[in-house]
Specification:
Helix content is 38%, strand content 15%. It contains seven helices and seven strands, in the order E-H-E-E-H-H-E-H-E-H-H-E-E-H. Helix 1 packs across helix 4 and helix 4 crosses helix 5 (138-152).
């Protein structure tokens, strides 16, 4: 994965969906972020687990989308003055999903992760100034490891529980990699200890990209 290699001109807006379809191909089953942003302005990438069944509830859907209802409070709790996805992008944070097809069962199978990998890998390579990649949940961690293993023959994130990794500083090709906890879905409201830890992790990320 060429995270740092990019020929994008500074401050030039790019449509992420169109760029990924041009680089990887068009698929009706894959949900991509149909937004125009300046890739060079992005300093941190947060990788969520899976796209919702309704694209309007995704990060770049409705202003009060389900995914934003949990994500914005997490960022606010970490000290970010944000109230919309535009605010989040403005401070240099891009959010995406590891699995780009909606899940059909409770668990996400390996084949769903694998079918989305070419898009996720190409997506990560669009941002030349990334300082931090946050892996929000186990699915994001698995997907990232599958990408890095192709390049380096080993996992960027050790295969142990996220809790045991929280005090480790992990890097991949000079980029800080931070495994953390889920940022969307109903369970986040119940698991208060994980919310607290995710908030702490996000606060560290915000400090790095200041």
């Amino acid at each position: 994965m060429r995270l740092q290699e990019n020929s994008i001109k500074e401050n030039k807006d790019m449509n992420i969906k169109k760029e990924l379809e041009k680089n990887v191909g068009v698929s009706n089953d894959i949900y991509l972020n149909n937004i125009d942003i300046s890739p060079s302005a992005i300093k941190a990438i947060m990788i969520n687990e899976v796209v919702p069944s309704d694209p309007l509830q995704d990060f770049y859907g409705l202003p009060d989308a389900d995914y934003l209802k949990t994500t914005i409070p997490l960022l606010q709790g970490a000290g970010a003055a944000v109230s919309s996805i535009q605010d989040i992008l403005q401070i240099g944070i891009y959010i995406t999903n590891a699995v780009k097809t909606p899940k059909t069962e409770y668990a996400i199978d390996k084949s769903s992760i694998e079918s989305s990998l070419p898009y996720l890998e190409a997506e990560l390579s669009l941002f030349p100034n990334t300082k931090v990649i946050m892996l929000m949940g186990d699915v994001a961690k698995k997907a990232f490891n599958m990408i890095t293993k192709k390049s380096t023959k080993k996992n960027a994130v050790p295969a142990v529980s996220t809790y045991k990794l929280r005090n480790s500083e992990l890097y991949y090709k000079g980029i800080r990699v931070m495994p953390s906890y889920i940022m969307t879905g109903g369970n986040i409201l119940i698991e208060k200890s994980k919310v607290a830890m995710a908030t702490e992790d996000i606060a560290i990320m915000l400090e790095i990209i200041k």
